[in-house]
Design a protein that fits this description.
heterodimer; A: about 150 residues; Ferritin; 4 helices; about 65% helix; B: about 190 residues; mainly alpha; 2 domains
Amino acid sequence: MTLPLATAGPALTAALTAALAGEHAAVYGYGVVGARLEGRQDQVSARQAFDGHRARRAALEDLLRAAGTEPVAAEAAYDLGGPITTAAAARALAARLERGVAATYADLVAAGEPGLRATAARWLVDAAVRGSVWSGVAEDFPGLTERRS
Amino acid sequence: MPDLVSDPRRPAAGRPSRRVVLAGGLRAGLLLGTAGAASLMAGCSNDEEPMPRPPDPDVVARTRAAELEDRLALLAEATARRHPTLASVGAAARGHRAHAGALRDGLPAPTGSPTGSPTGSPTGSPTGSPSEPTVSASAAQAAVALARQQDAAVATHLAALAPLSGRVARLLASVAASDAAHAAVVRQARR
């Protein structure tokens, strides 16, 4: 996927940067989730999600570079909202990570030109599906923080 | 002039005959066509005749998507009635109703709906009568049937995004993502 330079205004660059920051956090978080779920059946799902988020992170870095913007780097560590000591806490964290990236992809849908918009919408769908599988509950407006109950 | 009054073809007072309406519509169409051609030739300057305004893509897309969510809600509600043990289906029904409400929020009254039928035309919907969709007697099959319709709606919503404003595209993409998530949970719960 290429991004024409002319279409990358400040709003689009900001949305891409926010999405990349979300993917940095997801990659970090899924590292913790996968470690906590080691030996369990859903460790495979955590591994797949980890790989998927790393691929998204790389795609977003490429898009930002194509737009002439230096991609934001990952933080050294992320606040996971407390120690992840149980499998249930790990699954809840995974669902929270997906909610985080979903919000950035919803904003990218709004900011993106048609080609990027379609891609961002697919990524939003992926995040919503993964989040619902982790939590067992489907959100009615994934990514729309203003409608979150 | 009693002859005129008794003429059976004369329309009743206040009720124009179909022929009159058709003729009027034809004349209006010709006038619009003429105005359109004239404005083209005049390079659109000094144009006093307003050009027919194309339908707002946001309004068209929101109306269509809301009708699709209505049909999903009807199917999910019928499925939940037939299989009350499928808790995720009841949640999906509430979700589809919420989607339809959010998509219609702020739209003009449905009488002006550019899609025509105010009850929701069943375009592309294999669920049959909007009053009571058929639901399989098997809970597992009913869940799969609902999830299939939800996945089809995801594809329809995503295909409609390109011409929309950013705000409406964001809402519709979220509705698509929710439909996909509900389908995933409904499929999971059937096992």
